[in-house]
Write a structure and sequence with these properties.
homodimer, 449 residues, alpha/beta, FAD/NAD(P)-binding domain, Enolase-like, domain 1, 5-stranded parallel sheet, 25 strands
């Protein structure tokens, strides 16, 4: 007898689950995916580069199209929106061109993703105001940009905000970035965020910090014309909200599924939804275990979505796999400044009341004497006993991927002394003889009580 | 009462030991360093880049000069050669401009480094034949190159050999690299070494593989004129030997100190020489514990020399520190091809009779759709039970430093499954959503029994 799996959501988590399960189970599983948009398995992270003109979109951002998935035996139904989960009947209610339908399932995967947060201020419904979470969001933003606007305001100074501001300025727009905080990139300590602000300013972005958005103004044509903040009003024909996303859990909440304090769906390490039989969830709609905070967090990232989807797919097809949690590793670049972080920053450790010591090393991306050596800053944070808690790197070309060394050490529970001892790679085109991460580790070792 | 430490050798290991001890102990330790050359604390790894013209040498390669060390209270005596260790009298016999002297010590550090291996074939004493291990070697090679030779032969296809061949070709010499093996870089599996050979050939280096050097020819002026190999004779006005180095342990051996099977001085993990009181050794003259081979090896690298020197310095000044061993991590680049490795290759596991499984991933240095995405190859090797044994990476810009992720995992004793689960950094300018190392780890996981 063939079991049917229904997957709600056809991006990273949903399609990883579907693909993994189908590849392993073959004809023993009938896998149906319902997806609201026309796209599957796409890189939302690539949208800023599409907007900047680096990448052809939207098709260029699609890793595997609906038809490719179908050729692998997955019944992908696009432009179909799930409107309810009927857990008692074990059916998903969907709405598409064919009207309302009910699809029965033996096992259900909730992979509904996340949606951009748009603040509840007057005028946000104007034309020309955009979030960037889906390829459809990207298409709509590109339509606005095709109207040849002169000025853009990006609201939010996190990853998406700074990437989108760079994209706008590279398209030739007068670009303003507005954020409530004193410095962008609140996932870095403020003095490192300052380096990001300065790089953005050097690129030509007007950085309006410490400013809350109070309203959006629009013209008689219903299109946005400006952003009103506490500190001033900034004219704009296009506005991009990059202040984060929230788990898209309406369906799950309506069905009575457990929602955690982070706002994401709660799951066990197996990605099973507790108290339910044959019900799984993965990706941007769930909350994840943070191995360093020792708490559940909502970290909407493609890496976790893919890993969680894989775990679900293995478990759907008879495996006993667990998702091992997150560290909060992230990386990006603006202009030629790279930034990476993992675990806790000094500020975050402080906010959490965790006793912590930090040290910072100002080093170079290559041996100091080597042509092209550029500055990089590494900060490490640890418990007073030496257990590593986190790291941050801001620097030029070749800096940020070194955060993976810190992430690996953090994952394995290594101490600062272990990090000093590690046999890391060295050659003059890559670093000085002490790896930049180890220079910071030595400085931190010297500060531990 | 002030104790006196005498350090024999003023490069990475010796000066790290001296500096660390002096900084911690201050006036309580009288630190004397005797060094044969005029230089201290220099980057021998930078010599190929000096020869290529990227870096000003020799002073540009000096991290801290004798006078800088002296200003920190270390009694550095350059152009002074230690000729004997009189352990019974606790004196070092030295020879310098002032003639022979004896320097008494309370504690002794042997940091005599390594010396290039030159094969015992006719003609190797000709003018224009060079090793590259010290700045003086570099100076002599530059003198030969100042004579405007037309052709160079580099013997040896390891790190130094390929770096020196690139340096010669970039100086405009007709350059031939000769090696006994079928492919260069024997610390990589042969098919990955083939990528290195092809990159060298594309750069214009003639690669003569599988050829042993039988003799060197020279002209009436006593200068080298060609290299005779099993497969042919190659004209050259300058010859560089890059076939490796051997521990410089003549003094130590003469004094009866223990030499290991690797040819290096044996030490405890504290870097103390067993059976001796107050006698330490560090750097290219010692053998090190390989955490993966579980055996002692001779790995002459600046990273280990610095770490070992630091351990000695801490222990000289009352610490109880240990050197934690090596993994065999290494990295370099030739032209725009980067290579990194750590732990065991598939071929090495095989040679050692270790049961191992390997998998290879062909991935890209950025997201596949991102401009500038270039090929990279990642190979991982593990025990059948999943414990990681090693990794190799060959690829274009941005590839090789990822070996540090593997090195960190290897150091911490992680499994292939752990590597798949790791929270590594992702953004489209840096990789696809699954990190290249994790793509290889997933492939390997699928091959484990």
């Amino acid at each position: 007898m063939t079991d049917r799996v229904v997957v709600v959501g056809g991006d990273a988590a949903g399609m990883s689950a579907a693909s993994t399960a189908k590849r392993r189970a073959g004809d023993a599983l009938d896998v149906v995916v319902v997806e609201r948009s026309r796209w599957t398995s796409y890189s939302a992270c690539g949208i800023p580069y599409w907007v900047a003109g680096d990448v052809d979109g939207p098709d260029g951002l699609v890793a595997r199209s609906p038809s490719e998935h179908r050729s692998r035996g997955i019944d992908v139904r696009t432009a179909v929106t799930a409107t309810a989960l009927d857990l008692a009947a074990r059916e998903v209610v969907v709405q598409g061109e064919a009207g309302e339908q009910r699809i029965g399932y033996d096992q259900l995967v909730v992979a509904t993703g996340a949606e951009p947060i748009v603040p509840d201020v007057p005028g946000v419904d104007a034309q020309g105001v955009h979030g960037v979470q889906t390829l459809d969001d990207g298409c709509r933003l590109l339509e606005s940009l095709a109207r040849d606007p002169r000025r853009a305001v990006v609201v939010g100074g996190g990853y998406i905000g700074i990437e989108m501001a760079e994209a706008c300025v590279r398209r030739g727009l007068e670009t303003t970035l507005v954020d409530q905080a004193d410095e962008p990139m609140r996932t870095l300590d403020p003095d490192l965020g300052k380096q990001v602000r300065e790089a953005m300013q050097a690129m030509g972005v007007r950085m309006v910090m410490g400013a809350r958005v109070e309203a959006l103004e629009s013209g008689a044509d219903g299109r946005v014309s400006g952003v009103v903040t506490e500190v001033g009003t900034y004219g704009a024909e296009v506005v991009v909200f990059g202040i984060g996303v929230q788990p898209r859990v309406g369906l799950a909440r309506d069905a009575g599924l457990p929602i955690g304090a982070s706002g994401g769906l709660r799951t066990a390490a197996s990605m099973a939804v507790p108290g339910q039989d044959g019900l799984w969830a993965a990706g941007d709609c769930v909350e994840s275990w943070d191995r360093i905070r020792r708490d559940h967090v909502h970290v909407p990232l493609g890496t976790h979505a893919n890993k969680q989807g894989r775990v679900v797919g293995l478990n759907l097809s008879g495996g006993r796999e667990e998702f091992a949690g997150v560290l909060g590793t992230a990386i990006t670049k603006v202009c030629d400044l790279e930034l990476g972080r993992t675990g806790l920053t000094a500020a975050q450790a402080d906010e959490l009341g965790r006793d912590a010591v930090s040290a910072t090393a100002e080093t170079t991306t290559r041996a100091g004497y080597f042509p092209g050596a550029e500055p990089m800053t590494v900060r490490l944070t640890a418990e007073p006993g030496g257990l590593l808690l986190g790291g941050q790197i801001v620097g030029r070309d070749g800096s940020a991927l070194r955060i993976d060394t810190v992430a690996s050490a953090l994952w394995a529970g290594l101490s600062v002394a272990d990090l000093v001892a590690l046999d890391l790679a060295y050659a003059p085109p890559f670093s000085s003889v002490w790896d930049p991460v180890q220079v910071a580790a030595r400085a931190l070792l010297g500060k531990l009580p």
